[in-house]
Write a structure and sequence with these properties.
11 strands, membrane, transmembrane helix, transmembrane
Length: 371
C-alpha cells in the first residue's frame, strides 16, 4: 500500500480548491465580467392634476400682496352687485320721463352671468383662493369698465354733445334735459369699482402664484387662436350699431334703405365727445384683453381669462338681444350675432385648455401624458 507524501497532499488540495472557483473574474460589485447592464423600464408617469387651489407661493412683498388681492376681490363683489341693482332701479330722467332698463328673462340671465363671473371671482380673491386664475377672470369686465364708465358719464353729460334722439335700452327719446338717477349712480359706482379692482390685481399680480403644475405646451396654439380671434370679433361687433331698424324702404331703382325719419342708435364712430372716446376705448380694450390672455403662461390663468372673456361676451349679447325683443322698431344686427359667436369661441377655448392632452418626453426619456 503506497504512502502519501506531504508534497502530494498539498498539490491535491490546491487542485480541489481551483476546481471549486469559477473560471470567470468578478467585478468589484459582484457582477460577472462582460455582463450587459440592464436598466429596468421606468413606470409610465401620469400628469399632475389640474387644480385651482390655494395660494402657495411665498409672499415676497412683506405681507401686503395677499391683503391687496383680498381688497380687489371685495371691490369686484361690490362693483358687480352695484351694476346688477342699477339695472333694476330708475336710470335717468329725460325731460320728465323716467327711464328704467326693461326686465325680461334675457335681462335676468345677463345679470346672473355677471354675478357668476365677477362676483364669483371676487369672492375667491377675498378669501385668498384661486389667485391669478380669479384675477384673470376679472380681466375682461375690469378692463372694459374703463370705456363703460366713460359712456355712462357721457349719458348724463351736456346736451350739445348728444344727438337729436337719445337711445336708452333700445328706445329712442327726444329730450332737452338729462338727469341721472339712482340706477345711473350705481352703474358709475360699479364700473369704477371694477376699474380699481383691476388696478389692485395688476399691483399684486407679480407676487401671487397659483398651484398650477400643468403647463399648456401644445394646447397654447389653440388657446391663442380662440382668445385673439374672439378679441377681433368683439372689436368688429362693437364697431357696428347695436341694432338695425326693422322698417326699410325699397326705392324705384331697387336699392333698399332706411327711411330718413327713422333714427337708429349710433356706433362709436357716430358719437361725439366723451361718448366717442368711451366707445372707441371700449371696443379696442376687448381686442387687447384677447391678446393678453393669449400671452398668459399658466394654464389656470388662461382658463380663468377665457371664462371671464366668455362671460363678458355672453353678458353683452344677452343685453343686446334684450333691447331688441319686444321692440317693433328694431331687429338684431351684426353686433348681436358676433357677440354670440365670440361667446361660443371663448367657451370652447376654455374647455379645450382644460381637457386637451399632449404627449411629451419627460425626464430621462419617460413619456408623460399632459392634460
Amino acid at each position: 500500500m503506497a504512502s502519501t507524501t506531504p508534497r502530494a497532499g498539498k498539490q491535491a488540495a490546491k487542485a480541489k480548491s481551483a476546481g471549486a472557483r469559477p473560471t470567470g473574474r468578478k467585478s468589484a460589485k459582484g457582477r460577472p465580467a462582460g455582463a450587459v447592464r440592464r436598466t429596468p423600464p421606468r413606470p409610465k408617469q401620469s400628469a399632475p392634476e389640474l387644480t385651482f387651489g390655494t395660494l402657495i407661493a411665498p409672499d415676497r412683498s412683506g405681507g401686503w400682496a395677499p391683503m391687496v388681492m383680498r381688497a380687489a376681490g371685495a371691490l369686484a363683489v361690490v362693483g358687480a352687485v352695484a351694476l346688477v341693482v342699477g339695472q333694476y332701479t330708475p336710470y335717468a330722467d329725460l325731460s320728465g320721463q323716467t327711464v328704467t332698463a326693461p326686465v325680461s328673462v334675457l335681462s335676468v340671465l345677463a345679470q346672473l352671468v355677471l354675478l357668476t363671473v365677477v362676483a364669483g371671482a371676487g369672492v375667491l380673491l377675498a378669501i385668498g383662493r384661486a389667485g391669478r386664475a380669479a384675477m384673470s377672470a376679472l380681466l375682461a369686465f375690469g378692463a372694459t369698465a374703463v370705456g363703460s364708465l366713460m359712456l355712462a358719464i357721457f349719458q348724463t353729460s351736456s346736451i350739445p354733445e348728444h344727438p337729436t334722439t337719445d337711445f336708452y335700452f333700445g328706445k329712442g327719446y327726444e329730450t332737452t334735459s338729462i338727469t341721472g338717477l339712482t340706477g345711473h349712480t350705481l352703474t358709475v359706482a360699479g364700473q369704477g369699482a371694477l376699474v380699481v379692482a383691476l388696478i389692485l390685481c395688476a399691483i399684486c399680480w407679480p407676487r401671487i402664484e397659483d398651484n398650477d403644475p400643468v403647463p399648456l405646451e401644445g394646447a397654447r396654439v389653440g388657446v391663442a387662436l380662440a382668445s385673439v380671434g374672439a378679441g377681433i370679433i368683439g372689436l368688429i361687433a362693437f364697431y357696428n350699431p347695436p341694432v338695425f331698424p326693422a322698417v326699410r324702404v325699397t326705392k324705384p331703382d331697387g336699392i333698399t334703405e332706411v327711411p330718413v325719419d327713422v333714427q337708429v342708435p349710433a356706433g362709436p364712430g357716430g358719437m361725439l365727445g366723451l361718448g366717442r372716446a368711451g366707445g372707441i376705448t371700449f371696443m379696442v380694450t376687448v381686442l387687447i384683453v384677447g391678446v393678453l390672455i393669449a400671452f398668459l403662461l399658466a394654464r389656470t390663468s388662461v382658463i380663468g381669462g377665457l371664462v371671464g372673456l366668455s362671460g363678458f361676451f355672453a353678458y353683452e349679447a344677452l343685453l343686446n338681444f334684450r333691447d331688441v325683443i319686444g321692440n317693433p322698431d328694431f331687429v338684431a344686427g351684426v353686433r348681436s350675432y358676433l357677440l354670440a359667436a365670440a361667446t361660443v369661441i371663448t367657451a370652447a377655448g376654455a374647455v379645450y385648455a382644460t381637457l386637451t392632452r399632449r404627449r411629451r418626453t419627460g425626464p430621462l426619456g419617460a413619456e408623460t401624458d399632459e392634460i
